[in-house]
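User: quick one, fold this
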Amino acid sequence: MHMKERKMWTRKVSYLGVAFWLGLCACGESSTGAEAWSGLPEPAGTVALPLSGGNMYDESVIVDFQLSFTSKEWKRFLKYREEGSKSYVHCSFSFAGQTFSDAACRSKGGEESWEDELKPQFVISFNHWNKQGRFLGLRHLNLEANPYLAAPVRDRLGMWLMREAGLKAPRVNHARVFLNGSYLGLYQNIEAIDKEFLEDHFDDPEGNLYKEGWVLETNEEENDQEHLWALEDLIDHEKLTGDHSGFYAALGGMMDVPEVLRLMAAETVLPTSDNFSNGSWNYYYYDDPGTGRFMVLPWDFDDIIGEYAPPNADIFAYWGGAMGHDPNKLRQLMNQHPGWRQQFVENLVALRDGVYARLPEQTARYCAQIRPAFAMDPNTDFSLQEFDADCADIQQRIRARITWLRQQLGR
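Assistant:
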């Protein structure tokens, strides 16, 4: 059977099975978390839970998450998927013996890939119905399950490298997700970049956060985006040829240039295909009031070290290959600054010979940890043999990338 046909057939079987589980849970009015709220929001002040229990991002274990839906809400969830809508429905979430009985769940990822997903990817919000809602101090969870790659480790590997490189990046571990008590599958549990993330990583977390570099995620009521518009105008109005001395002076006052160069080097060494360095939208800007400068925060590494991010990707100008992103104009301009270009190369070498050289071992560690949970996953397109082959391929690609970087840099 062709892979596409196999996906479509197994998806139908999978969702029928999910519907069966929900029918069992709903018809008996069992005491699942989803039944507790009875469709009514909880009163303000009773939603937040104390900071106790397990660590949701503990990398030493695979955490277990329990999701519950009533049959009515699950039908709404599936209907929204058919419509290509990312609207939220009521759900219940439990972890480490604690339950948030009126969470909000929606589909995650690009709508164009939903038909290929045997298990939905989820965004879980604890403050959608009540803005004060938190679970263990968190507003959101991101549960990712890329349907196209056998080994679900790439986001975790990429963000591990970013953090080890000294960059501000989300934590990632793996979670077994249970739907109304039945094992739905293995997911990567990716920390959200939101106000809580800013509070954890910045001395002043009150600045503007922009998803995809332009969608305001904090301070929406004030809606003061003049600083972003000034940065965009600076970049848009600068020509790619000519004297850039004025541009460089202005940019140094508006962006944390050393941090941006380090992030571009970290994305380049991996390599990535669908991120800031490649002209894509998978990143955040943070307008840090503490420095008055913008920082770039990494996001969404599900396609790294693969088909669209080959080991021989250009060091200075890889725009995603078949993904076809337009060049990152900011990067093109920064490449022309001799000092910044040299600093980028030094970062690249340090990462290549440091944290990146440890990535094959880290890949083996993650793959070994999740292999039993993957083997029991009822909603994956891939066999255990394909999982093992992808884990080995990631390691081979990393070693090939190191060789390529040495050849291109001459050292």
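User: anything notable?
Assistant: Residues 168 and 200 are 10 Å apart (CA to CA).
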